[in-house]
């Protein structure tokens, strides 16, 4: 759709989205940019937020080690403040750029889930069917500081890697009369009845809390093993470690966090009336802000994440 036509539509939208605000609050609009169609993305970005089709591909390629890629390559994406370089792919080539102040970044979408708008469905995408890689990708998405992260919530899809599967095969869970089935929640916050509810997965839910806790804290204390284990801090607010390698990681790292005990929110949340315990692993941060980490690459989620709101006080 031509950006000028969208501008006309946007101008006609009601600003009264918040009844408590007499002056009106403009609706939040974002535009999904295709990774396979050539256009000037800045033409759209001047009217509303745009998606960044670069980001998920880079994360997924490194996690899947496409063309010998590794996590170390994410350093510039995580540590460097964006300038004006939302890069749009067209047939694997960079073709244009757009402002990045408020871009939408994501791991998957309703289209990548179906193999649509993806150059290589086998290597350029990940979804709930590859739980380990999917959770790690969302940890990276929500730990890094750039853009507005979008978390997926989907339903079961029976598809191969071939794109453009007919929509009738990929519709939502329904009964014999084609009525959409209700979303039913399990005790562990998961879903059934055909629904996946990735946003309720414990690790992803915990990382949303991480994102809220760290706010706008800058990325500092980047560390990597020169291959597939990385760590970085959101200065003074949070710290993550990810091991996508082949061996157990044992390392002493500067977390930048105040001295004390913290829950690894990947393995369990804070418990106790006065934040006195962890449902999962507890990490001790020394007076010099360093902590010892052991992350087994064979574990279900080979990562650690802790933040200032997950601090615990065992003696409370």
Automatic annotation (TrEMBL):
Molecular function (Gene Ontology), one example: alpha-amylase activity
Family in the record: Belongs to the glycosyl hydrolase 13 family.
Xref: Pfam families: Alpha-amylase_C (PF02806)
Top-level class of the enzyme under EC nomenclature: hydrolase
SMART domains referenced in this protein's UniProt entry, alphabetically: Aamy_C (SM00632)
EC number: 3.2.1.1
Organism from which the protein derives: Ornithodoros moubata (Soft tick)
Reactions catalysed according to its record: Endohydrolysis of (1->4)-alpha-D-glucosidic linkages in polysaccharides containing three or more (1->4)-alpha-linked D-glucose units
Gene3D superfamilies from the UniProt entry: Glycosidases, Golgi alpha-mannosidase II
Top-level taxon in the UniProt lineage: Eukaryota
A biological process from GO: carbohydrate metabolic process
Name of the protein: alpha-amylase
Alpha-amylase C-terminal domain: residues covered: 220-311
Keyword match Transferase: yes
Keywords carried by this UniProt record: Kinase, Transferase
């Amino acid at each position: 759709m031509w950006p000028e036509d969208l501008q006309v539509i946007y101008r006609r939208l009601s600003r009264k989205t918040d009844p408590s605000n007499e002056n009106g609050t403009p609706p939040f609009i974002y535009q999904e940019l295709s990774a396979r169609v050539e256009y000037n993305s800045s033409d759209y970005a001047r009217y509303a937020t745009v998606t960044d089709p670069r980001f998920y591909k880079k994360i997924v390629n490194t996690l899947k080690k496409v063309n010998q890629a590794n996590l170390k390559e994410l350093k510039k994406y995580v540590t460097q403040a964006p300038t004006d370089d939302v890069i749009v792919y067209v047939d694997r080539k960079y073709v244009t750029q757009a402002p990045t102040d408020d871009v939408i970044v994501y791991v998957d979408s309703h289209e990548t889930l179906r193999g649509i708008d993806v150059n290589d469905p086998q290597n350029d995408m990940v979804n709930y069917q590859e739980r380990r890689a999917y959770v790690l990708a969302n940890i990276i998405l929500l730990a890094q500081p750039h853009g507005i992260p979008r978390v997926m919530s989907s339903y079961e899809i029976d598809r191969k890697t071939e794109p453009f599967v007919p929509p009738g095969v990929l519709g939502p869970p329904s009964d014999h009369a084609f009525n959409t089935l209700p979303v039913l929640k399990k005790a562990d916050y998961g879903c059934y009845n055909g629904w996946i509810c990735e946003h309720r997965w414990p690790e992803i839910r915990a990382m949303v809390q991480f994102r809220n806790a760290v706010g706008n804290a800058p990325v500092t204390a980047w560390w990597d093993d020169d291959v597939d284990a990385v760590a970085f801090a959101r200065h003074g607010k949070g710290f993550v470690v990810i091991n996508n390698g082949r061996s157990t990681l044992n390392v002493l790292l500067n977390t930048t966090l105040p001295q004390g005990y913290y829950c690894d929110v990947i393995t369990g949340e804070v418990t106790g009336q006065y934040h006195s315990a962890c449902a999962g692993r507890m990490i001790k941060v020394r007076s010099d802000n360093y902590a010892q980490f052991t992350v087994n690459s064979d574990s279900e989620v080979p990562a650690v994440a802790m933040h200032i709101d997950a601090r615990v006080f065992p003696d409370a």
